[in-house]
Structure formats: structure tokens, C-alpha cells
Amino acid sequence: MSASTDDSLLYRLVSLYSSLALPSASSSSSSEHSTPVGTCMAFAYGSAVFPQGSSHQSSATSSSKVSDSLASSSPSPSDALMTDFLVITPNDARAWHAANLKRNPGHYAGLCRLLGAPFVDFLASEVGTTSVHFNTMVPVNHQSTFVKYGAVPMSVFVEDCLTWRHMYAAGRLQKPVKRVHQDDASPNSVSAINTAIDFNRDAALAAALLQLPRTFTTHELLQTIVGLSYSGDVRMGVPFAERPTKVHDITLGSMQELLDVYSKHERPEIYRRANLTQSGETWTQDASPNANAALLMCLPQHALIDMCISAREHSMMYQAGSKGTEVAKATTGWSEALYAAPPHAFPPHARDAVYGDDEAPSQDAVAESSKAARALAITVAQSGKAGSLVQSALVNITKSSSSNQTFANAIAAGSRWAPYMWKKVSKALARR
């Protein structure tokens, strides 16, 4: 993508996002709000932003699609291009949705609009469990285009990137996005978000390398990274819910953007730990137990916890006998320590974003968790089963979050769910 094309696309995406008129810092400055309800940051993503399906397809195609959509007359919802946004809100999600309902009641489907912010918050946090609420098929620019946007509290976003509790928002940021909004009036929030994204992408590269052999191709590396968040996604097994080639298509369409995100310049520590080198389309890594253990130590809290669970359930790390019993007991202790605290000490802004006024885990608890993570990493690396255990852990995490989120999305969309799914079916049929 040329610089001029990229700038043109970004300009149109920012304009489209601005058309949503979501609560901003300036709109939340009045005394009626006891807590901030402005939007911290927002990203555009998906096939309307990045081409999918061909590594030779120019990204200018996306720019022209957005441009045509913005300039078109009113198409029907089934024909219109829909652009996806992820919006990071302040931690008080209920207050943000209350403000947004007041400003944009039409963004919410009937049931959410009728029952208000408490129901929206309950649906996202208790039913969907990921705390991400999606408004879908939202018409903007006099209904010339349609938008789907997910709103997630900053604390949840940062925690998911740092721990992979749900790997939902984190999974989205492992793939290319376009930043369309940033609240520069909240530098601590911006710093926490950027730190979390960077950690998340380091972990994604480490997880992908652990699942790959000693030598592999550029496409294999990038497709493995893209596929992490789809490992257990229930939609991938449902006809027309998601196309089976989605991971492949995203990889081909965003090859250069992915290479930029996961370059040696951006991820120097992971390249160092894996001794990762590239020669043309062929990559080589150190696949020794020591290198694997070093990469395993880069994985987030809940990936490590689920690896303990997978090891116990499937006996993948050890053979039967006394050694197996010892390791099984050890994984129980490791998982308890990992549950109590993350194995990585969060930077100050990120720690404050996650825990807020709640008490953060003590330094001793973090140290014990780190010790458990190190013992787990060494044992897994020596077993030769690191790749399969990582994959099993990610399947467990993403299967639960995707099934809960899909159910919550259907309730949130209400009568809009049918046209939304018809768009997906039409797109899938068109690709055949």
C-alpha cells in the first residue's frame, strides 16, 4: 500500500468513525457525569479495512470500497459494506453505555435500547463474559454505509492483552488494525493500552513459534499467528458463520502489515530468545528445550494455567508411573500459584489500569507465580510437547469465550441478527 493510499484510507476511516458521534472527552465534561465517559481509543479492522484472500490484491481496494460506501446512495443492509471498529471505553462501562444510549439510541437494538445500560453491561460481562458489547448494522452517513462496533472497558482490554483471560480483544489486536481515535488527554490510559498491545503481540509471536518446527516459511509463521485466536472459535465449525478459509485469507491479504507488526525491530526480545533468522521466505529458529522454555516464559497467565490443566487431563507431558504422578501434583501447585497472580510484573500504568482501586497481587505472589511459570516452562520444554500443549490451551480459552460472545451478540443484535447473518452468508457464497 502506498503512503498516499494508506493516508486516504485512514482519513476515510477516521471520518466514518467520527460519524458515529460516540461519547468523547469533551462531551463528558459536564457535571452530569461523575465518572469519565469519553472514548479512550478506537481501532478499525476487518475486510472493509484490510483486503482478504489474495496477497497480490492491492490494499487500495479497501480504500476504494470505503470511499464508494461513504459516497454511495442508500444501499440495503444486505448490500452495504460494513466496517468494524473496536472501541476502548473508560472502566465504567455502564456509565459509557448510558451516555451513548442518550446520544445514539438508534445504535442499540430493541431489547438493549428498551432495558438500558444496566442490561447492556450485564449482557456483555455476565452472558458474553468478555465484557465486549457489539452494536451491529448501525447505519451512518444517512444510511449510506453500515458499521459494527464493539465497546470494551479499558481495564478489561488491558487485562485480556496481558493475561489472555478470554483472548477476545487480545486476539483482535494480534492482527493488523488501523487506529482511528486516541484520547491524548489521558496519557496514562494511552500508555497502558500501548504497553498491553505490545506485550500481547510479543506473546502471540512466541506462541506461534512454539507451534512451528525448526524451519518454516513466512506464510506458515503469519498464518499461525493469525490462527491463534481462532483455535477454538465455535463459529469456524458452523456453516456460513465464518468461512473455513478465513485465517488463510486474512494472512494473504495482510501479509505486509503482519510482517511489519512482527518484525525484528518490533519484537527484538522474541527474536533473541528463539534465535530467529530469515533467509528469503525461509525462517529458522532454535528448537532446543532451552529456547522453548524461554519462549514459554513469554506466554500470558491464562495460557500457562490452561497448559497445566491440559497436561493433567491428557497426560501429554509425561509417561505413566511415578514420574507422571509427581508432575501431575506439580502442575496442580503451579496452576494455583498462577491463578493467584500473573507471572509477569505489570508496568505501573498497566497495573493501575487492570486493578484500579482494588488491591493488586503482592510482589511475593508475583514472584511465586513467576517461579511456577519457570518450572512449568522447563518441564514442558523438556517433554517435547510444547507446541501441542500451547495449542490445546488456546483451544480451551477461545472456545469458551467465542461461544459465550456469539450468544451475547445474537441477543444484543435482536432483529438485526438476521440481516447481519445474511451478509455473512452472501459474502461466503460470493467467495465460492
What is the topological layout?
Layout: H1 3-19, E1 41-45, H2 60-71, E2 82-89, H3 93-103, H4 110-127, E3 133-140, E4 145-153, H5 154-163, H6 169-173, E5 178-182, H7 187-210, E6 215-217, H8 218-227, H9 246-253, H10 255-261, H11 268-274, E7 277-279, E8 282-284, H12 289-296, H13 301-314, H14 322-340, H15 348-355, H16 363-383, H17 386-413, H18 417-431
Parallel strand pairs: 2-4
Antiparallel strand pairs: 1-2, 1-5, 3-4, 6-8, 7-8
Helix pairs in contact: 1-2, 3-4, 4-17, 5-7, 5-15, 7-8, 7-15, 8-9, 12-16, 13-14, 13-17, 14-16
Structure description:
Helices cover 56% and strands 10% of the residues. Strand 3 (133-140) and strand 4 form a beta hairpin. It starts with a helix and ends with a helix. The chain has a domain at 3-197 and 401-431. A five-stranded mixed sheet has the order 3-4-2-1-5. With 432 residues, it is an alpha+beta fold. It is globular, with a radius of gyration of 22 Å. Helix 4 (110-127) packs antiparallel against helix 17 (386-413), helix 7 packs across helix 15 and helix 12 (289-296) packs antiparallel against helix 16 (363-383).
Which descriptors would you attach to this protein?
18 helices
Which bin fits the share of residues in helices?
A: 55-70%
The total strand number stands at 8
Number of continuous helical runs: 18
List the strand order in the largest sheet.
3-4-2-1-5
Q: Main beta sheet: strand number and arrangement?
A: 5 strands, mixed
N-C termini distance: 26 Å
Radius of gyration: 22 Å
Classify the secondary structure makeup into a structural class.
alpha+beta
Query: Which segments are poorly predicted (pLDDT under 50) over 5 or more consecutive residues?
Result: 29-33, 55-60, 69-79
Residue fraction in strands: 5-15%
**Helix-strand topology string:** HEHEHHEEHHEHEHHHHEEHHHHHHH
Mean pLDDT: 86
Task: Give the overall form.
Answer: globular
Cofactor: Mg(2+)
Pfam family, one: Tam41_Mmp37
GO biological process, one term: CDP-diacylglycerol biosynthetic process
Region (Disordered): 56-77
